[in-house]
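Two records follow; treat each independently.
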Amino acid sequence: MPIITTPQEFNVDDLFVDLRGFAGFPLYLKCEGFNFAGSIKLKAATEMVAAAERSGALRPGHTLVESSSGNLGVALSLVAAGRGYRFVCVTDSRCTLGARQLMQTLGARVHVITEPHPERGLLGARIDHVRRLCAERDGYLWLNQYANPGNWQAHYRTTGPQIARSFPDADVVFIGAGTTGTLMGVARYLREHRPATRLVAIDTVGSVTFGTPVAPRMIPGLGTGVRPALLDTSFVDDVVHVPEADTVRTCRMLVRGGFLFGGSTGTVVSGALSWLARNRAVTAVAVAPDLGDRYLDTVYHDQWAADLYGEEVLEPRAPHGVVGPARLGT
């Protein structure tokens, strides 16, 4: 039986949901939310903190500071508590109440940015605030998830090999693009060890990551207002942009089958279904970054969803004309 001494030591690595009954396509969803942080971000948080300790940049008494829309902030709160560091998370008004409360419960201080930078949006304003904190206070260390190689290296060592081991003949793998740490780590591993597997990035409409126009986004997680420094598009075979209304629809279709996933997962599944409706694949794998408990007051709240995207998102119809949840799990 597993026995651990710190919370970051536990993660379920080999759980996949068979979505063929929902999608009408051979699609397997790798669930990354079953750890004490509740998301895939625990892998990056653990690696970045460990690398900073190894290099000597992070020492006892230091305070970690990071910009996050929610999940990495929760993961770093957990790792900081387990390693004895203070942590300040700089987020913005889109961060869910549940994520903010969880960070504070774990001992973190949370700074909420409400005014966007005129060109770089809320993310740009968050990063500026982080830089000010580090400049004004001794002992503050910014891990900088947007450029930190530990972000993608965590997934090169773990997520990529886990997918390849479970599905060695996968035709296509779908990865959501936020900081692009998961995307780049898995892509690099597959390029070296499974070069025949296609890598499709899933982004959200309004994100600038892949050069598309900026637009307002309300669901935290995927997408950026500033192109991530980690991104190397030469490792990406295709990109799908998902409207947030489709994210909401997909999450709500999945939960009708009993699977409560987060907004990032809804975006990834919606994008995968859209791509698979146009392209043939014998075996497809998608990564589910998070679970849905932190989205109960947003994606799963009828009034919130209807006010932002119209009441049609509440209708139980499958996005992109897929089968729907009637056969989910069969």
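The next record belongs to a different protein.
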Amino acid sequence: MFIDWIKYILLGIIQGITEILPISSSGHLVLFQYIFNLNQPGLAFEMFTNMASLIAMILLFYKDIFHLIKQTFRFLFNKDLLAKSDFLYVVKLIIAVIPIGIFGFILKDWVGSIKSLWFVGLALMLTGTLLLIIYRLRNQSETHDEVTFKDALFIGLTQTIAIFPGVSRSGSTIIGGLSQKLSLKSLLKFSFLCYIIVSIPASFLSIIDLAEQSESIDIIGYLLAFGATLITTYVVAYFVMKRLQIKHLLYFGIYCLSVGFIAFITYFIL
């Protein structure tokens, strides 16, 4: 049992790291659950640790969240024109999360049934390929900082492919934003705020799911994974906001291609 708890902690750390970096948290959870021989009941574990990542991101961006909410109410109820730009920013966030919300709801059950090594391997290779393409084509001298409605819509559309295990959500938003020549700093903030909005309903669903399956799960293991995820997500997100650069996409792309290829080959060998 103690060894299993260590495995849960490691899975929590993996979730915290891979949720933020453009290398797919869902894909890595499938890979390491396979390595650790931990069988999870459907999407329960992934959604539970995702809730920990959500809390970490709220803690990191609470000032921005409070500011946007306050300014939105000021514009809607007080007609404060100085708050209009913040209100429009919130509208853009909503536009960006609508596509993945619709596709996620429609395909939730099907996606949960395709978490196999061969599929995750292919999806990771797709993520790696797209990261390398956007790295190669990126012209850093032609960027803009303000998120436009076009940017928001394009990010939202590219984000929909992240419902498949092995396709990185943060990677898909980076690919979508950089293809529209949005600066990386503005893109990361927008991407993380999108993540918060998308994760709120998923977190409520995870609570319901866990309540229904409480007798069949390792409560202590889940709680250990939750704590590890929360801490790791906060630390990694903080440093990503400070340190991530376009040149790093090359390394993430190569990594995803390599891990994806190994996972795909392993499925047919073992």
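Discussion point: Residues 127 and 167 are 6 Å apart (CA to CA). How would you locate this feature using only the token line?
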